[in-house]
UniProtKB/TrEMBL annotation, chain A:
Domain (ABC transmembrane type-1) ranges: 78-284
Keywords (A to Z) from UniProt: Cell membrane, Membrane, Transmembrane, Transmembrane helix, Transport
Keyword field contains Zinc: no
Predominant location category: membrane
InterPro entries (UniProt xref): MetI-like, MetI-like_sf
Organism (species): Shimia gijangensis
Protein name in UniProt: Putrescine transport system permease protein
TrEMBL record, chain B:
Family assignment from sequence similarity: Belongs to the ABC transporter superfamily. Spermidine/putrescine importer (TC 3.A.1.11.1) family.
GO biological process, one term: putrescine transport
Domain of life (superkingdom): Bacteria
Keywords from the named record: ATP-binding, Cell inner membrane, Cell membrane, Membrane, Nucleotide-binding, Translocase, Transport
Gene: potA
GO cellular component terms, A-Z: ATP-binding cassette (ABC) transporter complex
EC number: 7.6.2.11
An annotated Gene Ontology molecular function: ABC-type polyamine transporter activity
UniProt domain ABC transporter: residue ranges: 18-248
Name of the protein described by the UniProt record: Spermidine/putrescine import ATP-binding protein PotA
Reactions this protein catalyses: ATP + H2O + polyamine-[polyamine-binding protein]Side 1 = ADP + phosphate + polyamineSide 2 + [polyamine-binding protein]Side 1
Organism placement in taxonomy: Bacteria, Pseudomonadati, Pseudomonadota, Alphaproteobacteria, Rhodobacterales
SMART domains membership: AAA (SM00382)
UniProt source species: Shimia gijangensis
Pfam family, one: TOBE_2
UniProt keyword annotation of Phosphoprotein present: no
């Protein structure tokens, strides 16, 4: 009985905070827009009883999903989001791996401080940090002022409101999520393994490639998912740093919901996004489980 | 007896595999190796023995190439190896932690070094199979290191480091992680493998019993210096200093003064009210010079009656350490000095002749002990 209770608590939590909202969103995605509050029909009327519920169900249909396939904006936005998320994940990995490596090889007494520095940006609001990038990247921003004062460029670079600014924003924001799992994998690694590899005929580089990289694989995979999953649905960064050409599904969703007030289509977009995300989330879970098994 | 291959260090013509010439290694202010010169010969099983921090591991890491000497040269078959990086040396090392690659199977671990040499697939297969047979690991080839026992892991590490036919194999505390019984078995296995492969082995250990069992020669180290290099029996029976005598096995040390030579015997006065000890010196002692008399407990007899021997001392039994096969008696002499005497328990315990507080006689011959200057 007690065991049942223990299991029931997290399941109740999931049911209340995930399943119920999802069912509501899914129901809205099957409805039609209406000039009403809430801005869709049908709404469930409990007073009408069983008959009312039946007519309520008959009014639900898949036409919003059909609409998503008809207008190419949506699938282009999905593909573009996928590309941006993938590119920024790779960029984050390229930036994050050397940092994690440096931290794991740093003297013991420094590691806690370095770890602290990686986490430190979380202490200020995410929104403010993204805004401050606008100040850095804009045409009159600090970066251009700096480069021009040294005469490295004569014309200001146009970075803000392009995809490059989105990449910078995503890499900056999600870097800790990449660094931490890789660091924890590298820190556990026994340094004598590298000496053994060298002793057996590896150069420093091949030892890194044949020993360090495979042994940090779980960290790389975990970090990549932790960046890719939120980056795919990212809304704030592309809308603040990206330009009119930056097409991301999070932005489309927001416009559909707030500018267009088309809740049913917005819900359909969200449901599809969730289905797309389920795949990497399952892969991520499997990776975590494999890692636990390897350690156990 | 002619000089044979089993004792190349006695042959002035023999060429050493390894030659350390005045090697010094400093880490900042700390001198790990202090002006050390030593030769290691082919097919030797050479043990570096000493307490932790004595520099034995540094010595080995210099051979492997992970450290370079601050001063002096190290020659491998006549060639200076200082500029050769570890991956280009014909020296392999078995690590204390074994350092097996956890992401690779046993087979791949052993093949790792061979693949780096660009050997053909067929040759690699053959060599790995040979190493698996040598270390009796055939049925574990496909397993990962975490799926086998500690003793098996130790054998994988050995197989991996031997696979490349090194001229010199370095073993860093190879049996430290095994329990006592397994360690003893593995010691004999190591000797067997060393003989079969005809490789020169250098083993680093702090366990004197292990060094004595496996090695053809033992170097006792302290504070970056080699105190004595000799065969295990010579180290045990004729230590050159009280440090070596004390480090290897159990010993009674009595400090006294030389009190007159009589033929090849020397009298040592050491305590008031106690008879002089008569010993056989191997070096000259002038009258009045300090002499350290070292005698192993098993060379001290314990009897109830005074026997007819060159040295007899009377005392009272203070403690008995019963170790099964032997018993060690701690006997307190009149002046308070405690002498250890050992007897083999060839009788059952119930018929033991002595017990606590018994008055006994300790005796030993005039050749049983060693006379040391320091």
């Amino acid at each position: 009985m007690r065991r049942f209770f223990l299991i029931a608590v997290p399941y109740m939590w999931l049911l209340a905070l995930f399943m119920v909202p999802f069912i509501i969103v899914f129901k809205i995605s099957l409805s039609d827009t209406a000039l009403a509050i809430p801005p869709y029909t049908p709404t469930l009327d409990f007073a009408a009883g069983w008959q009312g519920f039946k007519s309520f169900l008959s009014e639900l249909d898949w036409e919003n999903y059909v609409f998503l396939t008809e207008d190419d904006l949506y699938w282009k936005a999905y593909i573009s989001s996928f590309k941006i998320a993938l590119t920024s994940t790779i960029l984050t990995l390229l930036v994050g791996y050397p940092i994690a490596y440096g931290m794991a090889r740093a003297p013991h007494e420094w590691r806690a401080t370095l770890l602290m520095l990686v986490i430190l940006p979380f202490w200020t609001s995410f929104l403010i940090r993204v805004y401050s990038w606008m100040g850095i990247l804009s045409q009159e921003g600090y970066l251009n002022q700096f480069l021009m004062s040294f005469g490295l460029i004569s014309e200001p670079l146009i970075i803000l409101n392009t995809n490059i600014a989105v990449y910078i924003g995503i890499v900056y924001t999600y870097l800790p999520f990449m660094i931490l799992p890789i660091y924890s994998a590298l820190e556990k690694m026994d340094e004598s393994l590298l000496e053994a590899a060298e002793d057996l005929g590896c150069s420093r580089f091949t030892a890194f490639w044949l020993v360090t990289i495979p042994l940090s694989k779980q960290g790389i995979i975990a970090g990549s998912f932790l960046v890719f999953i939120p980056a795919l649905g990212e809304f704030v960064i592309p809308s603040l740093l990206g330009g009119s050409k930056t097409l991301m599904i999070g932005k489309v969703l927001w416009e559909e919901f707030f500018s267009n007030r088309d809740w049913p289509v917005a819900s359909a977009v969200a449901v599809i996004l969730l289905l797309i995300l389920v795949i990497p989330i399952i892969l991520f879970q499997r990776n975590e489980q494999k890692q636990r098994e390897a350690e156990g | 007896m002619a000089l044979d291959a089993s004792a190349p260090w006695e042959d002035p013509e023999a060429k050493p595999v390894i030659h350390f010439q005045n090697v010094t290694k400093r880490f900042g202010d700390f001198t790990a190796i202090d002006d050390l010169t030593i030769d290691i010969y082919e097919k030797e099983f050479f043990a570096l023995l000493g307490p932790s921090g004595c520099g034995k591991t540094t010595l080995m890491r210099m051979l492997a190439g992970f450290e370079t000497p601050t001063e002096g040269t190290i020659l491998l078959q006549g060639e200076n190896i200082a500029p050769v990086p570890p991956n280009k040396r014909a020296v392999n090392m078995m690590f204390q932690s074994y350092a097996l690659f956890p992401h690779l199977s046993i087979w791949e671990n052993i093949a790792f070094g061979l693949k780096r040499d660009g050997m053909s697939k067929h040759d690699i297969n053959e060599r790995v199979d040979e190493m698996l047979r040598l270390t009796r690991l055939e049925q574990f080839a496909r397993r990962k290191p975490h799926q086998i026992s500690g003793g098996q892991r130790q054998r994988v590490a050995l197989a991996r480091s031997l696979a490349k036919h090194p001229k010199l194999l370095l073993l860093d505390e190879p049996l430290g992680a095994l329990d006592k019984k397994l360690r003893q078995e593995t010691q004999f296995e190591l000797m067997d493998i060393q003989e079969k492969t005809d490789t020169t082995f250098v083993i680093v250990t702090h366990d004197q019993e292990e060094a004595m069992t496996v090695a053809s020669r033992v170097a006792v180290m302290d504070h970056g210096k080699i105190i004595q290099v000799a065969t295990p029996d010579a180290i045990y029976e004729t230590p050159n200093s009280t440090y070596v005598a004390d480090f290897i096995g159990d010993v009674n040390l009595i400090e006294g003064k030389a009190a007159g030579q009589d033929g090849d015997k020397l009298k040592i006065t050491w305590a008031e009210g106690q008879p002089d000890i008569i010993g056989t010196p191997t070096t000259e002692f002038s009258n009045g010079q300090t002499v350290h008399f070292a005698i192993r407990p098993e060379k001290v007899s314990i009897t109830a009656e005074k026997p007819e021997k060159a040295n007899c001392l009377q005392g009272k039994i203070l403690d008995i350490a019963y170790l099964g096969n032997i018993s060690t008696y701690h006997v307190e002499l009149a002046g308070g000095k405690v002498i250890k005497a050992q007897t083999a328990n060839n009788r059952r315990l119930s018929r033991r002749s002595f017990t606590w507080e018994d008055d006994v006689w300790l005796s030993f011959t005039d050749t049983a002990g060693v006379l040391l200057e320091r």
